[in-house]
Each structure stands twice: as C-alpha cells, then as structure tokens.
C-alpha cells in the first residue's frame, strides 16, 4: 500500500516538485489538484506521452550501463515503448493478454503513438555520440530511475524521481532529465529552468544523498511537432547559495500552505491565471462561487489526488 | 502511398507483443530514414500521413465527379 503524503490532520508532509510547483502557481490550483484530485480531460495525453518517453530513455541508459550493445538496447527500448503505448486487457495477475486491446486514442495532433516512437528513435540518432556516462552507485547499479526520499526540517520529506545521474567528460556529476514540449527549442526555452523548483530540488536531493558536488541538471528537450521531433540540450547550474535560498523559500511556501489549510481557505492567485496559455481552472475561478462545483464536474475528472510517495 | 509505408502502417496496428526482432528493426530503420530525409530538407518526413503528390491532388475528386455523371 502506498503511504499517504498527507498526515492525520490533512496537511501535506511529503512534497515533490510537482506539489511545490502547484503551490507556487496558485494556492487554489494546489487545492484543486493536490487536495481534491481534479484532473483536466486534456492532461492525460501529456502525462502518457512524457511518461513513456522518459521511461524508454531511462531503460536505454540502464541497458547501456549494464553493457548492452547499442543496437540491441535501441531495439529493446522501442519494443518497450510500443508495448507500453498499447492498452492490452489484463489477466487477474495484471499481465497483458496477447491479441487484445488497442492503442489509446487521444484527440491531439502532435502527441500520439507514432510521434512517440519517432521521437525515441530520433533521440538516439541525435545523441549518437553520447559523452555523458551513467553514474554507477556504490552497490554497482546504474543511477537510473532513481526515486528519492530525503528528510528535511520540520518533519518534512522531499521526494521525487530522477531519470538518471550522469558524469560529464570532466567527471562532474549532473542530474539528467528529459522534457517534451510543443514549443520551439531555443535559449529562451531553457531560461524557464532557472529559477525552477524541480531542478533545484533534484540538485539539492542528490547532493544530500550522494554527498557529492552535483553541479546541476542537464536538460534534454524534445519539440514534438506533426512532421518532426527536434532536440536541444542545455545545462542548468545550482550553487550552494542558490540551493540554500531555494530551501528557505520552499519551507516558507509550505508554511503558507499550512496556514491556508488552517483557515480552510486557499486563495486564488489572479497573476497566474493567464500564464502559459491560461490556467485550466480559469473558467471555474471566473464563475460565481455558487456555480463553480458544476463547472468543475463538467470539465474535469476527479481522481485520487497526486501522491508524491507513489512508487513509479 | 508506397508499399513500405502501407506495410509499416499495418505493422503499427498489430499487437506489439507479436513483434519479432526484425519487425522492430524495420520500424527503427523507417524512422531513421525519415530523419535523414528531414535533415535533407523534407520537413514533413516525420509525419504519419504521407504527402499526396501535387499531380494527384484533386484527381480523386475528378474521378468521383465523372462517376456521378455516368
């Protein structure tokens, strides 16, 4: 059974970067998503695509770190992605039943099964001359698909999942992360990652876990378009001062969320409503109070709230 | 649509649990070829929908209209 990220009084004690970013965006957004579990009907294709894409690349690095031939690894990764992107019926033990099911259908013109496989194969062509090596942990296993939990002050837990730890040719340690986007990859695109809670947390956590001078994060970004996938790679660095500042800000942010919980009221942050094409809840928040539940029910699905402690 | 494209589309519709190593290699090779063509300037090389040559665009409509008239 998965642990709950919320304690008996209903406040969140285990925080991942998704939870923190939601709280940063808007307390009301955090309430809708992290506490009440509302999910936009359109969010699933991005999670589906991004999850299989990242898992596929993680598998590749794991196979290579274990000594696999590159072409064999690519074949196994593509096979993995093709299977993961097919919704088989399952038997009582959860095993896929051959000759059943079909690919999921999403009403999205760029993110689909075809572009997923294309993006994976094109990624391996783009980064054929890989000069980052996977970090091998003390127990001899490659540092890929690494879930972390780090206890910090105030009985809080920072948790998350790192795609991969890698070493550059100079032996410097970095977190390696994958992003997919519909935007053009440019220096402007990479600017959004500093300051950024996800990569500050990853750098912070890996420094604590490995007691090593982790420099920051190498970001591989993939622009998914109808007729192509284009790639970019850039680092984002974090100094100790910057991590300390992020840590202090994060504890204050969490304290604010506790305050809203105690008041049983999470205010809206109108300054965030129009960011990145507009908040998904903008239509809800713009309605009179009395009718908002109807708009939530009509446009969103209620699921189990996002759980940072759920093992991937 | 070329025979290779038809075959790949049909392959993509099959249960992936049934794929042989050769099937996977074909899919990988096809996507690598598309990337090569994209890098050479064919900006639609990676599209799932093959382009209809200009000479053939509208041809189907003409044929349909002829059939209706007949």
Describe the structure.
The complex is a heterodimer of chains A (312) and B (70). Chain A is α+β, with helices and mostly antiparallel strands. In chain A, 40% of the residues lie in helices and 19% in strands. In chain A, strand 4 (144-152) and strand 5 (156-167) form a beta hairpin. Chain A is globular. The model of chain A has no long low-confidence stretch (mean pLDDT 92). By secondary structure, chain B is mainly α. Chain B contains three helices and no strands. The longest helix of chain B has 19 residues, at 21-39. Chain B is elongated, with a radius of gyration of 17 Å. The mean pLDDT of chain B is 75. Classes of the chains: A alpha+beta (312), B mainly alpha (70). Chain A binds chain B through residues 74-75, 78-79, 82-83, 86, 88, 96, 98-101, 112-115, 117-118, 121-122, 125, 225-229, and chain B through 12, 15-19, 21, 24-25, 27-28, 31-32, 34-35, 38, 43-48.
């Amino acid at each position: 059974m998965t642990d709950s990220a919320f304690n008996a009084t209903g406040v969140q004690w285990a925080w991942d970067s998704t939870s923190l970013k939601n709280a940063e965006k808007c307390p009301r957004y955090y309430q809708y998503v992290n506490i009440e579990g509302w999910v936009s009907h359109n969010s699933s294709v991005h999670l589906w695509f991004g999850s299989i894409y990242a898992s596929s690349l993680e598998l590749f690095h794991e196979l290579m770190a274990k000594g696999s031939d590159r072409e064999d690894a690519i074949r196994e990764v593509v096979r993995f992605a093709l299977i993961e992107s097919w919704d088989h019926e399952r038997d009582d033990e959860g095993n896929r039943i051959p000759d059943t099911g079909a690919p999921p259908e999403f009403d999205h013109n760029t993110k689909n099964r075809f572009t997923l496989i294309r993006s994976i194969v094109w990624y391996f062509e783009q980064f054929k001359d890989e000069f980052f090596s996977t970090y091998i942990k003390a127990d001899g296993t490659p540092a890929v698909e690494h879930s972390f939990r780090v206890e910090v002050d105030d009985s809080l837990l920072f948790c998350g999942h790192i795609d991969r730890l890698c070493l550059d040719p100079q032996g410097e340690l970095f977190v390696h992360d994958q992003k997919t986007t519909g935007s053009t990859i440019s220096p402007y695109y990479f600017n959004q990652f500093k300051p950024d809670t996800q990569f500050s947390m990853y750098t912070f956590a890996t420094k604590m876990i490995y007691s090593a001078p982790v420099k920051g994060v190498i970001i591989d970004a993939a622009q998914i378009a109808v007729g192509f996938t284009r790639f970019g790679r850039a680092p984002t660095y974090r100094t100790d001062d910057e991590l300390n500042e992020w840590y202090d800000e994060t504890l204050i942010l969490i304290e604010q969320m506790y305050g809203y919980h105690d008041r049983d009221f999470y205010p809206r942050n109108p300054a965030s409503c129009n960011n990145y094409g507009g908040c998904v809840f903008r239509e809800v928040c713009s309605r009179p109070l009395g009718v908002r539940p109807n708009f939530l029910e009509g446009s969103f699905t209620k699921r189990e709230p996002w759980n940072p402690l759920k093992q991937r | 649509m070329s025979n290779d494209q038809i075959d790949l589309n049909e392959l993509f519709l099959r249960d992936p649990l049934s794929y042989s190593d050769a099937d996977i290699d074909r899919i990988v090779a096809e996507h690598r070829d598309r990337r090569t063509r994209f890098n050479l300037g064919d900006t639609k090389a990676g599209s799932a929908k093959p382009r209809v040559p200009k000479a053939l665009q509208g041809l189907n409509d003409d044929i349909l209209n002829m059939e209706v008239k007949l």
